Amino acid sequence: MQTELTNEEMLRYSRHLILPEVGVPGQEKLKAARVLLVGAGGLGSPTALYLAASGVGVLGIVDFDDVDLTNLHRQVIHGTSDVGRSKLDSAADAIQDVNPNVHVVKHRAMLTSENALEIIREYDYVVDGTDNFPSRYLVNDACVLLGKTNVYGSIYRFEGQATVFCAPGGPCYRCLYPEPPPPGMVPSCAEAGVLGVLPGIVGLIQATETVKLILGAGEPLVGRLLLYEALGMRFREVRIRRDPDCPVCGEHPTITKLIDYERFCGLPGRDETIDAQTLQGMIERHEPFTLVDVREPDEYEVNRIEGSKLIPLGELPDRLDELDRTKQTVVYCQAGIRGAKAHAILRDAGFENVLNLRGGIGEWERDVS
């Protein structure tokens, strides 16, 4: 790729070029850089827009989802006219409008153990905009194995955090979180909610750290976890260190290849889940199975899959006798997290044929309703 700046780029980036820390050499570094965004959602949206505006030459995006109306209060790279479109296509169009000099590479896929190394190895830096624990461990481990720096961010309700993992000599995600929380303990945004402006703040921190890393300027968030609390408008910092006994980045690693991250996080494997369209087919064919909604009664009143039986997750262990063990059982919640916990409860209780609806009723309404 030609990294020499054109006359148009000299004018476009003129406010960068007068910064001693950037200048022409730094802007050419940005133009030569290849950054992968894992996710074009809440965190990926501001990160993509500002990395594009800053002049990063190649932006790869991994996403498999479509734009939903519920995304728009926080995923600012997409607009109302994009509802129903692929997030990849919507994001690529927005990036090109911001800066047509950026080359966007679209990876229309879910990042998995089968494709992560192949995709990530083509990039210099990875920005983790994922919203679930299996994906975070997957991104982390792939970055460690490939020697790529992972610019991490996460959000929850009114709180966010950001840091830089997998930098030379620095800690990785497993150094901070050696074990995932039990399934269902940390609700997703679809279940717990999130302040719309929150991912904008955290995503911009990720974009800033990425630019600093490319330029080799300033002090990156290596070994420092930045915590943000929006209601009190407070930032604080926690020091984190590389764990010499870390199973992936430590002195004697035991994880030397990518694993099954759903099972590692206590979630049902792909063979223990069902997608919305397959479930619809089972319903239309009148197959004998029990459909259980494990959400709360107020959620059930708002929307439900016809024919489902309401048993809130907290009541499930005490109401197992209401279910027919000889039939297949399909459980669902709002986004799949409580469903995974219900799946584990039923399997532990001896139910042998249990499936969890991937993506919960949110996926059902997107793909079927």
UniProtKB/TrEMBL annotation:
The keyword Transferase applies. GO terms for cellular component: cytosol. The keyword ATP-binding applies. GO terms for molecular function: ATP binding; nucleotidyltransferase activity; sulfotransferase activity; thiosulfate-cyanide sulfurtransferase activity; ubiquitin-like modifier activating enzyme activity. It comes from the Bacteria. This is UBA/THIF-type NAD/FAD binding protein. Gene3D superfamilies: NAD(P)-binding Rossmann-like Domain, Rhodanese-like domain. Residues 285-369 form the Rhodanese domain. Keywords: ATP-binding, Nucleotide-binding, Transferase.
